[in-house]
Write a structure and sequence with these properties.
Chain B: Residues 5-235 form the ABC transporter domain. The structure holds two protein chains of two kinds. Chain A is mainly α. Chain A is built from eleven helices and no strands. Chain B has a six-stranded mixed β-sheet, with helices on both faces. In chain B, strands 2-1-4-5 form a four-stranded antiparallel β-sheet. A four-stranded antiparallel β-sheet of chain B has the order 12-13-11-14, with helices on one face. In chain B, 36% of the residues lie in helices and 27% in strands. The chains are: A mainly alpha, B alpha/beta.
Chain lengths: 266, 321
């Protein structure tokens, strides 16, 4: 009963956040503009210089773009919370008999919905530049599911950072330090095999690599001439991705909740 | 009559800054109490403790018969808070804001909507109900915020500086709204740094400074504490000022305060208008040319100055949040 109530409270807060997407459509336009530009940049500018044996680079590219897009989308959680913290609305929430967790649950849930919307737009963009799904609809759906699940877990990490820094401007800079290496020292845009030894190890164990490869395999965007690097997470990318989701949630849900309680008690 | 708020020895420290320093306060049910003090006096901190937003380091507080620490969850169903910063969402319409608050009070879907419409009508926001709050004026936002505090018909209502930052016209409008509101018998704790506001709205006033209540009573009682009426007059020259001071010494019930730069005299007196007549007669007999003369009741500004030794708005400290 208490759990149901908490979920209902979370849904009310999520609805509040989603109304913002409707009222400020520029937000969605600009959160998709950047990834679309990335697709064009890599498909038509850099793509010609990157060779993936046995397949077209654009087929390789899109799973990486999806991973990047949902990671960037997950940062909205942090900036949204940081923005809320600067306003009186958090005090109002805290004075209401609602579940303590509702602000965080609502925020991460609405950002998940936002990410689902963005990924649909990105898939359409991919189809336009020549990306195709070579697997069954169920596998394709599983790919989207893994991307979104990972983004959801990641948004709890962003929530924690957003509550830690308490200012949307600072968050945007702080999250970049985190987002940049995790997105690019990976197999998102290039094959990790081509990286120098040190970076290659980082890339192979980077959670984002597992997620990207899982999506790549489930969409059927792999080359028959390529075998995944011989490390466990990339040999079992789906399992590894789900494992990372659990690890992220176990670490960052309590941390974010702790930080929320601490931050509002000032 | 039972007490809606009882606070005993509340202490809250932020590092070396002491926001609350043993605050004691009692608010009887059904009354309006004004918590009056300058910026940084601890008003907001006190409200945050009473509304469960903040835990005090020491001391205890009961609101509506419930312990703010141990029974916080239950207490939140019984209180309404409207803060210094209008706690409304800019991207939501007025209706959506109130509906959301209703849902979070667990009123249910139908009741939340009904209550939102009711309050919008009551606060004269019907026309703006379905427009995003972004386009609201400062006064409209405050009214909506206040409406938000009333959604669940709270037994104890907290208004933290409800008119700070409003223009004079909106402030008057807000006062009307608050006066109307408490006719229904809600207990209200109102914090303000405007003495005029406390005087007009509150049944009883607690003056707070440096995290402690330094005086309590009705506005009249506080004024009496500083002394009764004063005769104030201005003359043209400093020679006349000393003549006037000598002439009126017999009427004074306390020390006469002479300001020789402004040629202004303040004489504490009792006896109302007959004293005024007598003063004019005596001054006339001495041929003192009086530019201006009047009998004044002390304002809460005087009360504050007398109690704290500094004027209310003159505070170097920042507001404690």
């Amino acid at each position: 009963m208490k759990l149901l109530q908490a979920l209902a409270d979370g849904a009310v807060v999520a609805k509040r956040n989603l109304i913002k997407i409707k009222r400020v459509p520029d937000l969605l336009v600009f959160s998709t503009a950047a990834p679309i530009m990335f697709v064009l940049l890599f498909a038509y500018v850099f793509g010609g210089s990157i060779q993936i044996p046995g397949m077209d680079y654009r087929e390789f590219l899109m799973a990486g773009i999806f991973a990047q897009t949902v990671l960037f989308g997950a940062t909205i959680t942090g900036s949204g919370l940081a923005e809320d913290m600067t306003k009186g609305i958090i005090d109002r929430f805290r004075s209401l008999p609602m579940a303590r967790s509702a602000v965080l649950v609502g925020r991460t849930t609405s950002d998940l919905v936002n990410n689902a919307l963005v990924i649909v737009i990105m898939m359409i963009t991919g189809l336009i530049v020549g990306w195709r799904i070579h697997s069954s609809p169920l596998e394709a759906l599983a790919a989207v599911g893994i991307l979104l699940l990972f983004a959801y877990a990641f948004s709890w990490a962003m929530a924690w950072i957003g509550l830690l820094v308490r200012s949307p401007e600072v968050f945007n800079n702080a999250s970049f330090i985190f987002i940049f290496p995790i997105t690019y020292i990976a197999n998102t845009f290039v094959q990790s095999e081509n990286l120098p030894a040190g970076l290659r190890h980082v890339a192979e164990w980077n959670p984002v690599s597992a997620v990207t490869l899982a999506a790549r395999e489930l969409f059927g965007n792999t080359s028959p001439l390529q075998t995944p690097p011989d490390v466990w997470p990339l040999q079992h990318p789906v399992l590894a991705s789900l494992g990372w989701v659990v690890v992220f949630l176990l670490i960052f849900v309590p941390l974010a909740n702790y930080q929320y309680k601490r931050a509002v008690a000032r | 009559m039972t007490d809606a708020i009882v606070a005993e020895g509340l202490v809250k420290r932020y590092g070396s800054v002491v926001a609350l320093d043993g605050l004691d306060l009692t608010v009887p049910e059904g009354t309006i109490t004004g918590l009056l003090g300058p910026n940084g006096a601890g008003k907001t901190t006190a409200v945050r403790v009473f509304t469960t937003l903040l835990e005090a380091d020491e001391g205890s507080a009961r609101v509506a018969g419930l312990d703010v620490r141990k029974q916080a969850d239950e207490l939140r169903t019984k209180i309404g808070l409207s803060g210094q910063y209008a706690a409304v969402d800019d991207n939501l319409t007025g209706f959506e804001n109130l509906d959301m608050v209703g849902r979070l009070y667990h009123l249910g879907r139908a009741r939340s909507r009904e209550r939102a419409r009711e309050l919008l009508a009551r606060f004269d926001l019907e026309d703006a109900a379905d427009r995003p709050v972004k386009g609201y004026s400062g006064g409209m936002r405050r009214r909506l915020d206040l409406a938000g505090a009333l959604v669940a018909k709270p037994t104890v209502l907290f208004l933290d500086e409800p008119t700070t930052g409003l223009d004079p016209r909106s402030r008057l409008g807000m006062w009307d709204v608050i006066e109307e509101l408490v006719k229904g018998g809600t207990t209200l704790l109102l914090t303000t740094q405007y003495l005029e506001e406390a005087d007009r709205l509150a049944d009883q006033i607690a003056v707070i400074d440096h995290g402690r209540v330094i005086a309590e009573g009705t506005a009249d009682q506080l004024k009496d504490q500083v002394g009764g009426e004063r005769l104030e007059l201005s003359v043209a020259t400093s020679a006349e000022l000393s003549t006037a001071a000598g002439t009126l010494a017999g009427l004074a019930v306390g020390q006469i305060d002479a300001d020789d730069r402004q040629n202004h005299l303040t004489v504490p007196v009792t006896g109302g208008s007959s004293v005024l007549m007598e003063a004019i007669r005596r001054l006339d007999a001495e041929s003192v040319k009086v530019l201006d003369i009047g009998l004044r009741r002390p304002t809460l500004d005087d009360v504050f100055l007398a109690l704290t030794g500094h004027v209310a708005d003159d505070s170097a400290q920042g507001e404690q949040k």
